[in-house]
Write a structure and sequence with these properties.
The chain has about 180 residues and is mainly alpha-helical. The protein contains 5 helices and 3 strands, in the order αααβααββ. It has helices at about 5-50, 55-100, 105-130, 135-145, 150-165; strands at about 135, 165-170, 175. A 3-stranded antiparallel beta sheet has the order 1-3-2. A hairpin with a 5-residue loop joins strand 2 and strand 3. Helix 1 (about 5-50) packs antiparallel against helix 2 and helix 3 (about 105-130) packs across helix 5 (about 150-165).
Length: about 180
């Protein structure tokens, strides 16, 4: 496998593994739930037989066991629901990442991603402006590239922030925030 293909495979594996792990956990919980449920119904049948045979002492002991099994089933049911919610959340994240890579995100989701990037750039620039009076454009681009934003994305975001009046250019190829927060 080439380095690029291997890297893409690793990226895919990194975000698919949590979903697979949660799904495996959910399946194990389902198996355990079915086993406990079978035990519950076996006890229930014995309880009914003892009650009909007027063996009330044995029926009372079975009733205590039934209550314990009910508590076990309730706990397992809760764990299954919790695991399902985690798996579905992870599945949704995976779907959004794949859609983004394919360029087919819903417009509302695209806007959320863009707003998040805007905030990243603005917060980073604000942090730098606290240290320096103004920030060289190339330094800003290189530092944000390390954070996962491409230069063309940063340029687009910086232009939008300029249009919104949140940042400005005190001189050519330097940026500064309007306020030093």
């Amino acid at each position: 496998m080439s380095g690029d293909t291997l890297e893409r495979h690793q990226d895919f594996t990194d975000f698919i593994n949590p979903f697979c792990d949660e799904t495996k956990k959910m399946l194990k919980l389902h198996d355990k739930y079915e086993k406990v449920e079978d035990e519950y119904w076996k006890l229930h049948r014995q309880y009914v037989k003892n009650k009909r045979a007027k063996k009330f002492d044995e029926a009372a002991e079975l009733m205590i066991k039934l209550v314990k099994k009910t508590a076990q089933l309730t706990k397992l049911h809760y764990e299954i629901r919790e695991s399902t919610v985690k798996a579905l959340g992870t599945k949704r994240e995976i779907k959004l990442i794949l859609q983004k890579k394919a360029g087919v995100l819903p417009k509302s989701e695209i806007r959320k991603w863009e707003k998040n990037k805007e905030h990243k750039v603005l917060d980073f620039l604000t942090k730098l402006c606290k240290e320096f009076d103004m920030v060289p454009a190339e330094y800003l681009f290189s530092e944000l590239k390390k954070k996962g934003l491409a230069k063309n994305e940063v340029i687009k975001i910086v232009e939008e922030l300029e249009e919104q009046g949140k940042i400005f250019k005190p001189r050519q190829d330097y940026y500064r925030t309007v306020t030093k927060r």
